[in-house]
Amino acid sequence: MSAARSDLTTVVMPHMQNVRGDLFGGHLMSLVDQAAAVVAIRHSGGPAVTASIDRVDFRERIPVGALVTCAATLDYVGNSSMDVTVEVYSEDVASGERRHTHTAHVVFVAIDPDGKPRRVPRLVPETPEEHERYERARQHRESLRPR
Question: What is the pLDDT of residue 59?
Answer without folding.
Answer: 85
